[in-house]
Design brief:
Helix content is 36%, strand content 19%. It contains 14 helices and 20 strands.
């Protein structure tokens, strides 16, 4: 399949879409890889040619399934009529735009453009009057990106599954990742990015899965939460890109509550060799293209997202929470600042100075918070998991109803009391602890 996509300059997703539309059919080899025979390779070439003529998939479907030449002629005739109409509209638009451009250069005023368009003109040339009639009589059409409808992925007969990685699997999965990235020279950096052993111990904020086929591990995928209902695909290892669309379907089934999926790529490759978003051998980018991820921003990395619901429904959801991910912010100071109900994942928050801030109901997962100083700050109902509080100090801060799970509290103090010592004393004596 990879050879076909490279040869014709199309994506795996397009091939799946064409198969779903019934105009293309693939076969499976003994190794379970999909391939196209000569007849379907010819069809792919024909589809690409017809798409260059801007024929729609339903029109191409009619051409392929019609047994009468008259029907095919009818398809081309309809397409020609539609093209003529579009051409007439574009020519008219060109006439009007030239007039408006001259008006702007002459009057230097945008208000005159609005007034002109909202006025009936009897003194203009016939060409301009006809152009105004054609363009201004057209109903407003919302501009939208033409994308194929979302596929309903049929998993029938697909021997593919996901299993959570446990400590006993680390060696096996490491070798599989090495095989999948056999052309990667900096394999140690790649494995460090995967963090296979470490992430197998963080089941509540990060997930490492084995990709299983016929009882054998053939790849791996590593995920990390980036919000209450958002998930990041951190790292991917696979040898057969044809499985990408099925792999994503399995991930969605495993995490059905996720509204938005994220994939990051480096926007400065020479400076991002140490970042987990570095796309070794283009596997993440291929996965994103196959599953219809959309470019969103390049504020720090090239970020692509896949909404499982309409944009407004996702981002205006009362349950959806944004997150700061992998943020290396050392020595930051905040005062009178509100970050309540914000999520922090895999971040470096060392040497912070936080004064009189509201961080209640915030979530801190797998985050470094060493040597921080918190003063008069609300941390009530906070959720701290796998966080590092080494040598951090909290004074006059509210910890009511907080959750701390598997956190490093060495040297952490609250109002001068060493938390670790206090806990040890409580466990052994169950009497009030005094720092004196």
């Amino acid at each position: 399949i990879g050879d076909v996509t490279n040869k014709f300059g199309i994506s795996h997703r397009s091939l799946h879409y064409w198969e779903n539309a019934g105009i293309l059919k693939s076969s499976r080899a003994e190794n379970d890889y999909r391939y196209y025979d000569d007849e379907n390779l010819l069809k792919i070439k024909q589809i690409v040619l017809l798409r260059k003529l801007r024929l729609s998939i339903p029109s191409i479907q009619e051409i392929f399934t019609s047994e009468k030449l008259s029907k095919i002629i009818s398809v081309f005739t309809d397409h020609l009529d539609e093209t003529k109409k579009e051409t007439e509209q574009l020519n008219a638009l060109g006439v009007i735009l030239r007039q408006l451009l001259n008006m702007l250069k002459d009057r230097q005023d945008m208000d005159s453009v609005y007034q002109y368009l909202d006025t009936t003109h009897s003194t203009e040339s016939e060409e301009l009057k006809n152009a105004l009639k054609i363009v201004m009589s057209e109903p407003v059409k919302e501009i939208a990106i033409e994308t194929p409808p979302e596929l309903i992925v049929d998993m029938t007969g697909i021997d593919l599954s996901l299993e959570l990685v446990i400590r006993e699997d680390v060696s096996e999965v490491t070798e599989v990742v090495k095989r999948c990235y056999s052309n990667t020279k900096e394999i140690d950096k790649l494995l460090e990015s995967f963090g296979i052993e470490y992430h197998s111990t963080l089941p509540d904020c990060a997930y490492s899965y084995k990709i299983m086929q016929k009882g054998k591990c053939i790849g791996a995928v590593n995920l990390g939460f980036v919000g209450m209902e958002a998930m990041l695909i951190r790292c991917l290892a696979y040898s057969d890109p044809d499985n990408n669309i099925y792999l994503f379907e399995l991930l969605k089934q495993k995490h059905s509550d996720i509204l938005c999926w994220n994939i990051y790529f480096p926007n400065e490759p020479e400076n991002n060799m140490d970042h987990f978003c570095f796309d070794w051998e283009g596997k993440k980018r291929q996965f994103a293209e196959d599953n219809g991820f959309t470019f969103y921003t390049d504020a720090r990395w090239n970020r692509c997202i896949k909404m499982l619901k309409p944009h407004d429904e996702v981002y205006n959801s009362s349950r959806y929470r944004f997150a700061l991910l992998d943020g290396s912010m050392d020595g930051v100071s905040f005062r009178f600042f509100g970050t309540d109900r914000l999520d922090w994942y895999d971040g470096k928050m060392t040497n912070w100075r936080i004064t009189d801030c509201n961080m209640s109901e915030a979530t801190f997962y797998d985050t470094w918070m060493e040597r921080c100083r918190f003063y008069e700050t609300g941390l009530d109902k906070g959720d701290f998991r796998h966080a590092r509080f080494n040598e951090s100090t909290f004074k006059n801060s509210d910890f009511e109803n907080c959750i701390l799970i598997d956190c490093d509290i060495s040297g952490m103090t609250i109002d001068g009391i060493n938390v670790k010592d206090a806990l040890e004393h409580y466990k052994s004596d169950k009497t009030p602890y005094s720092k004196t």
